[in-house]
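Purpose: get a first structural picture of the assembly so the mutagenesis plan has something to point at.
Setup: two entries, given in the order below. No constraints added.
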Amino acid sequence: MNLRKSGLMEIFDPKAPPKPIGIDLGTTNSLVAVVKNERPLAIRDCDQVALVPSVVHYGDRGAVIVGRSAQRLAAEHPRETIVSVKRFMGRGADDPETKRLGPYAFAPPKAGEPNVVRFDVHGRAVTPVEVSAEILRALKRQAEDELRSVGGAVITVPAYFDDAQRQATKDAGRLAGLEVLRLLNEPTAAALAYGLEKKQNGKFAVYDLGGGTFDVTILVLDDGVFQVRSTGGDSALGGDDMDRALAEEIFAASGRESKSATPGEVRVVLDISRKVKHGLTDATVVDVESPFVSGKNIKITRERFDELVQPLLARTGTAVRRALKDAELKSEDLDGVILVGGVTRVPAVRAFVAKIFGREPLADIDPDEVVALGAAIQANLLAGQGNADDVLLLDVIPLSLGIEVGGGVVDRILPRNTTIPSSARSIYTTQEDHQTGFEIHVVQGEREIAADCRSLAKFTLSGIPPVVAGMARLEVTFRVDADGLLSVHAREERTGKEQTVSVKPSYGLDDDTVEQMLLDAIDHGEEDLAKRKLVEARVDAHRVIASTKKSMVADPELLEPREQAKIEAAILALESAVKESDANRITLRVDDLDGATKEFAGRRMNRAIAQAIAGKQLDVVEKTVEHAKGIENAHAHEGVRDESSRDVTSAARASQGSR
Amino acid sequence: MDPFELLGAQRRYDLDLAALEKTHRELSRALHPDQFAQSSASERRAALEKAAAVNEAWRTVRDPIKRAEALFRLEGFAVGETNEPKPSPAFLMEVLEEREALSEARAKKDLDKVRKLAADISVRADGVKQKLAATFEKQNGSRDRAAIERALPLLGELRFYRRFLDEVEAIEEEAFS
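Result (structure tokens, whole complex):
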């Protein structure tokens, strides 16, 4: 009997707001958590198990099975059962990941289709986004069983995920019918769970070794602000690689070549390997029967296993050293090291972490659950159900973002470990006479040559009047939002020609494709979707009205009388639209109200800046404030002129070829 | 936007970065999009834009090279390798010698020598930073434009020192793995 759910004191309130959830979408296991009575808790299924294996089985009649039941079908249906799908998220069809030891068949993209990995399942092409959406849907159902009504979700991603991998994760969330409140980096989520528990200030490292990804993050905790100083890692390194190393060992001991094994054999050996890895956490030697030679025992000692994983650990060590360097810290400056990820239970990993940081790591919160718990806390804050004034996460981009310039070289626009949200612009010019188009190639990575970096998007700004080389002025603006997602804006200054792309085309699925998948996924798709849109539009309208009224009460002196009348009229129009049932009309009225409050919002932000600076300066350098303000006022007009001289400078520095 | 003004800092090279880091944190607390998750789109956009601008300003001000570049620009001087005066032949000679010594030490796998060279370069970089601090210090309420113009080649020197130290890091990393 399920005692937990029979709690008589818990009375179901039909008017209670939907509960926001936190989801750890892991390589090996996923889980969902929620904040209850101010404490984050993992949501368990009817067997009291929180971890859902990230395994999706596609039945031959269209049924989809997720989790433990799917895991049991993996050996018998290796090609139709997708394990560790996270390793394929946001990757191109020809990515090296598709060529590693694994049982899958892949379908090449057809002409005109985005260049993404596709699993060939019963002759149907399935993308990693769709597979991940199945896992998310299962988690959402599990949460709904417990909470009745689920609100928005925070989904965690490895800190080292690049833009394409983040975008794919967000698409999967939308496809699963979730309102994605935020993508949150896994180490930051873990730090949040630890930090709020311990109420401690200081400098911390998070060593997060998961099934398929490795992250290391260095952050500073100061009165509720979690500021990430640097992050590093490897988005293709994890416990799976330990399993593969063990699998090769078992193949070799059985006198077999892994390359000639059938998909089913590969799956079986990988599963045995995982069990051996788990066994070696407590035992110093594990005996397994060879799946190929009946009666043949294979002995694997912890010593041998340690030897096999050393090269993998060495790779994590390189990332740790670089992250410390980027944070301008030494390991002895740290106040603690937090372990995250089930793989950190492996004794060799713990020993390695203790050695490289020179201290014993903290692991008092379950390393499998800590990320989801942090995500639940953040979801609660974003939904306005926690005390948002007390906590703030300041995260960074893990890899530099730039564009390709003349000679195939990368011009970095935003360097790695830049705090987000962030924006930066750079000016380029034509290299050839009468050039009428710029090709803009957006890349991510640390290498100097664009071809060695991850290609995120390519687009062309055309229709520029032909002028002499060096005369056209192209301004490229990069913006990274709080999810770590990039959008790029290009503008030719003389003609005013411009174009904006959110960086999806190269590897992602475009919005229309996601919408179509969403329709396909629901029975009576069109009808359901229309209903959902109306509900969402109304929720949004209520939120905007409440927030606008609150701002007007908070800062009435920033409003001009005519402006105030305009805003009030827009609120009335929106309120009457909400009473009808036309989602598009509500959206239009929301946009009107948005337009009416634009300048007011800008003035409020300026006041917030002035107050934050004044508050701080009174604390720290009371005496110099007046002095400093005097200087800035005197130079205010110069600031404008200097801005334009800066642009000319960068134009001369870099040039953009387009051939 | 003047990054110094945005952070409420004085327009000078020698700044209390620890205090400014706190100011940046307070500004983030006031402006970060998370604080506006429940607000209207216009406020979310305005906050996002300001938060990004504040982060960009802090990135400029905390970095010794970017901070110097910003100060020169604010005084009306163009910066960037093609705009600045060429470094002096004496400096170039010195640079050549240092680089040779570094590649020699690398070839011999002499890590102690590599570290010694790096320490020397760091001391010289600090010297350049002190000169920049003096250049942008006010004398009787105003700055000496001629002196600022004379200081422009210091930027090239700082960039050289940084590249040198980056190379040292790469060599150390190579030695570890």
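Chain A touches chain B through 80 residues (CB under 8 Å).
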